[in-house]
Design a protein that fits this description.
Blueprint: H1 3-15, E1 18-32, E2 36-37, E3 41-47, E4 55-75, E5 81-94, E6 107-113, E7 118-120, E8 125-141, E9 154-169, E10 174-198, H2 208-228
Antiparallel strand pairs: 1-10, 2-10, 3-9, 4-8, 4-10, 5-6, 5-7, 5-9
Amino acid sequence: MNKKLLGLTLAAAGAMTLSAGAQALVLEDTFENIFETTEINQTGELSLFDASLGDLTEVTLTLSGNSISTSMLENTASGSQTFSFDSVLNFFLDASSVGVTTPAPAFTTVLASTDGFVTLAAGEFLDLGTAEDNGSWTVTLTGAELAPFIGTGNFSVGCSTISGTTFSGGGGNINNTQETTAACSGSIAYMYDAAVVITPPTTVPAPASLWLMGAGLLGFAAFKKRKSS
């Protein structure tokens, strides 16, 4: 190969940037609200995905709720009463800001239960103690569903509750004294491909002084040859 052509080829290779295939990465964000007395109506914010980081391939959104409740039952009738009691907290979520539809309710937590039928004498109390419970709802999105999650800043989600109580039996004579607090939280995981770029080290040219020295030595050798002749 012609030496000049070889030199140009090597120079071009040295200046070229090589791209090594995409690297899968995960970016996460969370929020957590404080406990408040029910019924609650809370909001939380999660970060949008910055497109400059790479190509978004999948989003997993998880919204959760926690409840803490104490319950005391009292039989106010003049005679004994047999009944069962269950109390739950329904969590309703709103992620419409990113085009996500959630079930209604998204999940429930248990506040109190007699775990079947019990009998209380007239004027008798039943302390059901403290119940702590949690629930969550998760959705994974791909394709065209990812568009609302791409941008700068944050998006908001909402969380509210409605308590539900069920008595079977008791003749309407069972009084329930209940105190409940609840809180909502959320997390998001962005899966994306980020291109890994590899740049070869730049070839450092020989100093000009070395080229001048080589040219001088060649000239001196030619002069000496002519003189010997």
